[in-house]
From TrEMBL:
It comes from Thalassospira aquimaris. Transmembrane segments: none annotated. Its EC number is 4.1.2.14. Pathway: Carbohydrate acid metabolism; 2-dehydro-3-deoxy-D-gluconate degradation; D-glyceraldehyde 3-phosphate and pyruvate from 2-dehydro-3-deoxy-D-gluconate: step 2/2. It catalyses: 2-dehydro-3-deoxy-6-phospho-D-gluconate = D-glyceraldehyde 3-phosphate + pyruvate. Homotrimer. Belongs to the KHG/KDPG aldolase family. It is an enzyme of class 4 (lyase). InterPro entries: Aldlse_KDPG_KHG, Aldolase_TIM, KDPG/KHG_AS_1, KDPG/KHG_AS_2. The keyword Lyase applies. This is 2-dehydro-3-deoxy-phosphogluconate aldolase.
């Protein structure tokens, strides 16, 4: 049985947001993150290597919960469901994207940044959303304000989140986890420095576990 997006996010101390330029990096990068305690991966469809990278991680890293990010239309949503993604993430939402998600049954984490966008997604049955771009949309103070009138909706904020501010986000009642690219720096991936990626992932995992007790 497939997990809902809320169940998936609850398994993630942090969701690494990945842009994989070279398909050969996909499996070692995923293994390095999983070894550091981060099994839920968002591979963005921002590179030519994205789809093949996702396929390889699904096939070769069974401990990862592999999702596609930057899924911005129905066609991409359908394709990601077809290749077996555990979930899809979008920076926003559109009628076509939401319909495709419903048709495929692949869990979607749609993006929202304002009360009206959140309410629109609630109308479509969503209670778990990506808050994007987090820092630019008002960050912690905006999410705190939203938790008053809309407490039933939980978020994964991404965009400008890092080790230095994740504690402020995780202290809020409406945050399940956070997403970010800092655990997989471009230069570490380019150099194949998987030990550094694991170290960054472990550092994030340890920080989250300490905060959650
Ligand atoms: C993104 O979609 O690029 C993510 O939100 C990651 O943002 P970050 O690079 O600020 O972590």
């Amino acid at each position: 049985m497939s997990l809902s997006s809320r169940e998936i996010l609850s398994k993630a101390p942090v969701v690494p947001v990945l842009v994989i330029e070279d398909v050969k990096d996909a499996v070692p990068l995923a293994k390095a993150l999983v070894a550091g305690g981060l099994p839920v991966l968002e591979i963005t469809l921002r590179s030519d290597a994205a789809e093949e990278s996702i396929k390889r991680i699904i096939a070769e890293v069974p401990d990862a919960i592999t999702g596609a990010g930057t899924v911005i239309n129905a066609k991409q949503m359908e394709r990601m469901a077809e290749i077996g993604c555990a979930f899809a993430v979008s920076p926003g939402h559109s009628a076509g994207l939401l319909k495709a998600a419903a048709d495929t049954g692949c869990p979607l984490l749609p993006g929202a940044g304002t009360p009206s966008e959140i309410m629109n997604l609630m109308d479509h049955g969503y209670d778990t959303l990506k808050f994007f771009p987090a820092e630019q949309q008002g960050g912690v103070s905006m999410l705190k304000a939203i938790s008053g009138p809309l407490p039933q909706v939980k978020f994964c904020p991404t965009g400008g989140v890092s080790l230095s501010n994740l504690a402020d986000y995780l202290a809020l009642p409406n945050i399940i986890t956070v997403g970010g690219s800092w655990v997989a720096p471009k230069d570490a991936v380019k150099d194949g420095d998987w030990a550094r990626v694991t170290k960054l992932a472990q550092e994030a995992t340890d920080r989250v576990n300490a905060l959650r007790g």
